[in-house]
Amino acid sequence: MNLIRKFSSYYKPHMKLFMLDMFCALGIAGLDLVFPILSRNILNIYIPDKNLHALAVTAVAMLVLYVVRALFNYVVFYWGHVVGVRMEYDMRRDLFGHLHTMDMSFFDSSRTGKLMSRLVNDLNLITELAHHGPEDLFISMIMIFGSFIILMNIEWRLTLIIFFFVPFIFIFAVWKSLRMRTKFRTVKEKIAVVNSQIENSLSGIRVSKAFANEEFEEEKFQHGNMTFRLSRTDAFKTMAEFYSTIYLFMNLLTLVTIAFGGYFVFLDRISYGDLLAFILYISFFLEPLKKLTNFAEQYQNGMSGFERFSEIMKIEPKIKNIENPKILSDVKGDISIENVSFSYEDNEENKVLKDVNIKIDAGKTVALVGPSGGGKTTLCHLIPRFYDVTGGEIKIDGENIKGFSIKSLRNQIGLVQQNVFLFTGTIRENIIYGNLDATDDEMIEAAKNASIHEFITSLPEGYDTFIGERGVKLSGGQKQRLSIARVFLKNPPILILDEATSALDNATEIVIQESLERLSKGRTVLVIAHRLSTIKNADEIIVINDSGIQEQGTHDLLLKSGGIYADLYKSQFKGFI
Ligand code: ADP
Ligand code: MG
């Protein structure tokens, strides 16, 4: 019930159109109920009376009504679908927006393919359900009750005989519909798996080629594809049983009408005209039954999609603004990480960070060093609140970051990571992403600062060069420089550099290091580096491993004290010193 209420709420913005649609649907039902009466009059009265005038008038009237019906039909078909299409658009918009409010832990545990499937496939059938649903139900009810009342007036015994069978058809239809509903739900789940596999496999195409694992990928896909095939086959089997039986029932109903109706004509209880009316009504009546069963099918398709849609819409993001959050602006840039502990949701016993304390004064650079898996990236993600700390607090300029609006917090932080993500599109689009209001001059300035302007202008299409899917047409260094240009354009007071150059070769690293130093000027910086040469000049270096902070001090100090850092440094420069 709740689901239907939620579904209905999507009608609200389109109420006027929907009412027009329903009005015309009502018109169609009304006209359809009138036609058999007119035909019956012709047979029962005008033909025996040889009343040519009445016959002609009725024929002309019917002609006009048919045209009106055609107009109504046009409105119902076209504008009805328009209502559906608009509702589907609204739902897709809401779901897309909602997905963007979800926090990172949601995306850690969901599959992109599944989410895509919900956005695309699940909502695809809403258009049909949205207008056929109410319209068909409405027309069918009126047609069935209307015919029943009119036929009862002509000959109640015959009517009761015919309508005796109707409940059985309905019970059968409802029973089978329910079964179809579960079957269609399974189909939806399977297609989501297939989508997700395609997405995963194609985005990893380079890896599968490198390992020559195309056949393995194919086999993996076969399995998903086969379960999808089987689930659809199964759904169609139920559908086939459903339709063949319903048509059989409907034909039997016509047979009953003709046989018993004929007998009633023998008995002179009804005339030929009445029998014609009965047959016409029953044939009209088949239409609503078909519509009802169609509706049952659309309902299953649409509603199982809508159900999955609302399941996601119900999920509340765990990381959200407090009521009346402060806007973080004019930041000085003091960051203090106080007694911070953190564990990922799926592994709560295993704390990634335990009582970490780090203080970064405004404008200073603090470097984190430590073994892989020590929680450095995790710590970087806590500052812009991709995840929330499970203990302790993080403050900017002395205030807990949870008190600021998330948008204003993230606006003050620039993040450069090892794995650069570029959007499929042009160079311009990717740089401008850092500040959507930036002018061309500002964009070029940022590119120059990131030492990529010259490369870009050497391309035939310059800033409008298409960089391929996720930037495949660029080298690792070029990608990283674009991502740095993006941050230059954003111009945030706080900067987080998470192994920004680790994936690059030494020569490229040196060039990019220059840009990064330029970028760091005048900002508060938390830098994580794999190669210690790049952090020598940091104001403070912190050595962290999974049992917490081990050492802390300047490069010279740490080197002198001869601890973990000194060992690490020496091992990296073996042969150089
Ligand atoms: P580092 O950057 O120091 O190499 P990370 O912060 O990436 O370390 O990872 C720290 C630990 O947290 C690792 O044990 C890793 O398995 C785990 N981890 C990282 N990201 C996630 C995630 N999204 N969900 C669950 N566990 C994660
Ligand atoms: Mg890391």
TrEMBL record:
The chain crosses the membrane at residues 20-39, 59-83, 137-154, 160-178, 246-266. The keyword ATP-binding applies. Residues 22-301 form the ABC transmembrane type-1 domain. Keywords: ATP-binding, Membrane, Nucleotide-binding, Transmembrane, Transmembrane helix. It is found in: Cell membrane. Residues 335-571 form the ABC transporter domain. It comes from the Bacteria. Gene3D superfamilies: ABC transporter type 1, transmembrane domain, P-loop containing nucleotide triphosphate hydrolases. SUPFAM superfamilies: ABC transporter transmembrane region, P-loop containing nucleoside triphosphate hydrolases. It is a multi-pass membrane protein. It holds the Pfam family ABC_membrane. Its main location: membrane. InterPro entries: AAA+_ATPase, ABC1_TM_dom, ABC1_TM_sf, ABC_transporter-like_ATP-bd, ABC_transporter-like_CS, P-loop_NTPase, Type_1_exporter. GO terms for cellular component: plasma membrane. The keyword rRNA processing does not apply. GO terms for molecular function: ABC-type oligopeptide transporter activity; ATP binding; ATP hydrolysis activity. PANTHER family: ATP-BINDING CASSETTE SUB-FAMILY B MEMBER 10, MITOCHONDRIAL, ATP-DEPENDENT PERMEASE MDL1, MITOCHONDRIAL. This is ATP-binding cassette, subfamily B.
